[in-house]
Amino acid sequence: MFRKKFGWVICMATAWEFVGFVCRTISTFNQLTDTVTSEAVLFVLLAPLWLNAFDYIVFGRMIYYYLPEKRIAGIKAEKIATVFVLMDILAFIVQLIGGVMGQNGDGSMVTLGLNIYSGGVALQQAFILSFISLIIIFHRKMLRGETVQGRHGWKKLLYPLYATLLLITLRIIYRIVEFANGGNAELNDNEVFIYVLDASPMLFGMIIWNIWHPGRTLLGPDSEPPKVLSRRILKSNARRAIRREEHDARKERRAAGKESPSFILMEHSGINNEDDDNVNVSHGMVEHWSQWPLIPIKIVRAKAREIGGNVGSRITRS
């Protein structure tokens, strides 16, 4: 059995489509009320958005898994799904508004709702076309061999992507034609069209992803990009570990007498080994903590000699 955490997305597509047609069946027993009919239409209209989202997520994982740079067209693999799912949500909201207005309005409100829904569907198709352009770029990279060494099977995911996007596009064209000019009477009255041009594309799309399941190909730790929160935690832990190592190293040096706060004073004061025989200094560093009290005296003497030398040189020049 092949499993991926994001598989719940296509399960939602299946569930919404199933609920939509169940409600459609129930509505035939009580045709005088529109409540169940409206719910059936909304579920059937919006279910393909879940299939779209699944395609976006799969493609993002493919980029992360196969491309060494883990990005395409300047977009990181982790961002691909996020960007297009947000676009999908925008199309979802537009279609939902149009669908609700079309089912619960009267007269001109129904026409306006259908037009808004058609606009949301067209927006969805525009996002799909931009998404396909990225897939083509990825396809060309794969054909040129620009992939992580030893990872194969990209065609088993790429061609199902093409197929499902083509099926969704077929359904979108059907819906645009159906709702053009306030609704096509022939398409609305004949249920053959909804089963062939709406339900069948969704069914075949789900079957395709069940046969060519991403879990068959995307294997190992690199098959899932790290979450943003997980990356932040890892970076924070790494920084904390580095600080801890530096702190331990300083403690060890101080315990060995090779580092002390006086080092900073001596470094800026210009003290060297010749300044005083009573203080044992090696390479500008105090060797023992007991020598701290002598540091201020050393600084004063060094500065005094420096000032005296400068004054003497000026007198000599004059």
User: Could you tell me the radius of gyration in angstroms?
Assistant: 36 Å
Strand segment tally? 4
The strands making up the biggest β-sheet line up spatially as 1-2
Strand content: under 5%
Which range best describes the helical content: under 10%, 10-25%, 25-40%, 40-55%, 55-70% or over 70%?
over 70%
Biggest sheet details:
2 strands, antiparallel
Query: What's the assembly state of these chains?
Result: single chain
Output the number of helix runs: 12
Structural class: mainly alpha
- Write down the overall mean pLDDT: 76
Name the poorly predicted regions.
259-292
Amino-to-carboxy terminus distance? 96 Å
Overall, the morphology is elongated
The succession of helices and strands, N to C, reads HHHEEHHHHHHHHEEH
Overview of the molecule:
With 318 residues, the protein is an all-alpha fold. 72% of the residues lie in helices and 3% in strands. It is built from twelve helices and four strands; from the N terminus they run αααββααααααααββα. It has helices at residues 8-27, 35-46, 48-66, 77-104, 108-143, 155-179, 185-189, 191-211, 214-217, 228-255, 262-269, 295-317; strands spanning 71-72, 75-76, 281-282, 285-286. It has a two-stranded antiparallel sheet with strand order 1-2. It has a two-stranded antiparallel ribbon with strand order 3-4. Strand 3 (281-282) and strand 4 (285-286) form a beta hairpin. Helix 1 (8-27) packs antiparallel against helix 8 (191-211), helix 6 (155-179) packs antiparallel against helix 8 (191-211) and helix 11 runs parallel beside helix 12 (295-317). It is elongated, with a radius of gyration of 36 Å.
